[in-house]
Amino acid sequence: MPNYTDDHAQAGIAAKLPQLETWPNQYPGYVITTRFPEYSSVCPKTGLPDYGTVTIQYKPRKACIELKSLKMYLLAYRNLGIFYENAVNKMLRDIVEATRPEWCVVKGEFTPRGGLNTSIFARWPERRGPSSGKKVANSR
Question: Which active-site residues does the annotation give?
Fold first, then answer.
């Protein structure tokens, strides 16, 4: 197989997906966790299917994600060529844009391929290091 290209690396990032609708939050100070155990997408290089569980957790300010729109949004990844890392970070970006939460975490736990399990963890806002004041990168 040829090497990975910039096209592979950027695949799916700018894809137009169904809009995440919101509704007005009525209560302050609580956390919402949504788990989607049927995530699937397509590897942009091999065309093979990818499967996993995506967990979204956020503390709402003024808006909450409407769950049917979230389901339609997540199902739209099914035929999308996108790497795990890009999918999780795109979800985080799109959720933060739609809801403007106090904080949000998206975790993807992907099923084994070739004996490797992969977990991707992205959060907003990014954490700062304990003593340096430097940002700590998102990690898997």
Answer: 43, 50
Which helix (H) or strand (E) covers residue 88, if one does?
helix 84-99
d(CA 120, CA 139): 7
pLDDT in tens, 11-58: 999 999 999 999 999 999 999 999 999 999 999 998 999 999 999 999
With contact defined as beta carbons under 8 Å apart, do 55 and 104 qualify? Answer: no
Q: Which residues contact 11 (CB under 8 A, 6 or more apart)?
A: 44, 81, 82, 83, 86
Of 105, 82, 80, give the one whose Cα is nearest residue 95: 105
Residue type for 109, please? Answer: E
**Residue 25: CB partners within 8 Å, gap ≥ 6?**
60, 61, 62, 63, 64
CB contact set of 21 (below 8 Å; sequence gap of 6+): 65, 66, 68, 69, 98
Tokens (6 digits) for 48? 């093979």
**Structural domains of the chain, ranges and CATH numbers in brackets:** 16-124 (3.30.1130.10)
- DSSP letter assigned to residue 4: P
